[in-house]
Write a structure and sequence with these properties.
The protein is mainly β and 555 residues long. Helices cover 13% and strands 45% of the residues. It has an 18-stranded antiparallel beta barrel. It has a two-stranded antiparallel ribbon with strand order 1-9. α3 runs antiparallel to α4. It is globular and about 70 Å long.
């Protein structure tokens, strides 16, 4: 697999001006999407259903808003100036610092150290995340300690590169610790080992190189995560699971954005409550993914996607099926041609700027279904699909910088599951889509308010109903279970099994001390009720972040 990816990357010699990408960050990307909605038009620089965005496109978009919108509030001007400063190598706005440190450090407002020469661009920034908290359901003190470095740049303005490495120690709330002990994985992370009595220790590494093969075709190769969709959740491909080895080819021309993603993922892990065992390695599987986005007029973007999870064991190991590397063929056709049982998903997404300051969006993922059975409403187990519908309302009710968002997510039992660990829609035993897996209904409400330039207030309310399995049962919620062990063929309903209600409410106040230096105060209430158990906790935490997003465990 690695040799195939390397060959594809270096099989072209053409290269054009290139940019790295802004790392995924919920708050950061909300600001960008907010100004697209405010503009009233689908922006021409990037396609919001596929994240991450290139820094060049972010700077161009931010500069254009500042230059053309004369009704911006002082808070909006601050946010847009922040985006321009954060991507200053592509921006028209000056980022020079009036008070550099020792003449070499922070010569720009956003970078500890940088080099900006015609043939070499380099940005180096430290990463720090220090946090502590307490919850009512446990005497264990929560804790997060991340130290790292982030590096990005360009060579000859043709090859972009990015790298993030971080060393972490983490003690989460009780429900997160239970998730780790049950699934043997840390949410969003890969290999880990134990830390003290209740914590985990893990190393995070992401990085890639990218360049343009032609004016409209870009290649990117590395180890990172992506997110597909315009919502708080994604039912197609989210950033919940850890980073993976990938090759991405993106074609952006006219009103089209066509993305091909090929990844190598981990099918299973081995370990115990003290950490994972690395001996003999872990089995691999592969994801091939097509997504085609189209801008229709100035208000609507629609996309269609097709993905396949697959593996081909042989006498040596798990090797990729090369037919799936075809960037334009339908995966379902290959699957049927091969007579294979690979797991193919397909579906669509959309974003519509429906009215002034209002955006509607949604997704539909089809794992497997027969229209005849859907019409009959007989609850056939293989009618596997998930859908999302949501909306955003910015500057709500005429209150500047008050943004509201509402979203509903529904997934039928057994969607994303398979008869083999090589076909389930997961990576490192974590869902590639929604963190609840399947067999759920979820409603999300988010309020974001920025009363002054550097203060960000966010409130979230998440309510969900989902089905839980008793021992030796499979009602379709756990996508890691073999779906051949299903409980019944017909009569399957969302929430079947042990009906469980989840309620999570949280409030976060963040203050930006300096560029990308934040202090956070967070309050969380979480309750889970079912016939098996009732869990309640109130959680309070404080943190200092430097060049890193919040660690969210909202499930």
């Amino acid at each position: 697999m690695k040799r195939v990816l390397i060959f594809l990357i270096f099989s072209t010699s053409a290269a054009l001006a290139q940019s790295s990408y802004a790392p995924l960050n919920e708050d950061y990307y909300h600001w960008i999407d907010r100004y697209e909605i405010r503009s009233g038009e689908i922006n021409p620089y990037f396609f919001s259903s596929w994240k991450a965005y290139s820094r060049k496109d972010i700077a161009t978009f931010s500069d254009s808003i500042q230059n053309n919108d004369t009704s911006l509030s002082e808070v909006d001007k601050f946010n847009l100036n922040y985006l321009s400063n954060d991507n200053w190598e592509w921006s028209e706005i000056s980022n020079e610092s009036s008070k550099p440190i020792l003449k070499h450090f922070y010569k720009s407002k956003s970078d500890l150290y940088h080099v900006n020469e015609p043939d070499f661009d380099l940005h180096i920034n430290p990463v720090l995340y220090l946090g502590a908290g307490q919850e009512s359901s446990s005497d264990v003190k929560t804790f997060v300690n991340t130290r790292g470095v982030e590096i990005r740049g360009m060579i000859d303005k043709k090859v972009g590169f990015y790298s993030f490495i971080g060393e972490n120690q983490f003690i989460g709330p009780e429900y997160v610790r239970n998730y780790i002990s049950t699934n043997l994985v840390v949410p969003h992370e890969g290999f880990w080992k134990g830390f003290k009595d209740d914590g985990v220790d893990f190393f995070t590494a992401r990085g890639y190189i990218n360049f343009n093969a032609t004016k409209h075709i870009e290649l990117q190769f590395g180890h990172d995560r992506f997110n597909v969709g315009n919502g708080y959740r994604s039912l197609i491909l989210s950033d919940f699971a850890p980073a993976s080895l990938f090759l991405r080819m993106n074609t952006k021309v006219w009103k089209l954005n066509y993305t091909n993603l090929f990844t190598q993922m981990t099918a299973n892990v081995r370990g115990n409550s003290g950490g994972l065992t690395a001996a003999d390695g872990y089995p691999n599987k592969y994801l091939a993914f097509h997504h085609l986005g189209l801008n229709i007029g100035k208000k609507l973007n629609v996309g269609i996607f097709e993905s396949v999870i697959y593996s081909k064991p042989d006498s040596v190991g798990n090797n990729p099926e090369l037919k799936y590397l075809n960037p334009i063929i339908f995966y379902r056709a290959i699957e049927q041609q091969n007579g294979s049982s690979d797991n193919v998903l397909l579906g669509l997404d959309f974003k519509w700027l429906a009215a002034k300051r209002i955006s509607l969006y949604g997704q539909l993922a089809l794992d497997e279904f027969l229209l005849e059975n859907v019409k009959e409403g007989n609850g056939w187990w293989a009618n596997k699909f998930a859908f999302q519908l949501g909306g955003e309302y910015i500057d709500a009710f005429g209150i500047r910088n008050l943004d509201l968002q509402a979203e509903a997510n529904i997934a039928r039992p057994y969607v994303y599951s398979h008869s083999s660990q090589y076909g389930e829609y997961s990576h490192y035993r974590q869902p590639l889509a929604h963190p609840l897996g399947a067999n759920f209904k979820e409603w999300v409400g988010i309020v974001r308010y920025q009363p002054v330039k550097k203060l960000y207030l966010t409130g979230k309310l998440i309510a969900a109903n989902y089905g839980v399995d008793r021992p030796d049962e499979n009602w379709g919620g756990n996508i890691l279970l073999d779906n051949r062990t299903r409980e019944k063929e017909y009569g399957n309903e969302i929430g079947q099994g042990v009906s469980t209600d989840l309620l999570m409410a949280n409030f976060t106040a963040s203050y930006q001390l300096k560029h990308n230096v934040f202090i956070d105060a967070t309050l969380v209430h979480r309750s889970v009720k079912s016939d098996l158990a009732e869990e309640y906790t109130n959680f309070t935490s404080f943190s200092l972040r430097w060049n890193i997003p919040q660690r969210l465990n909202e499930f």
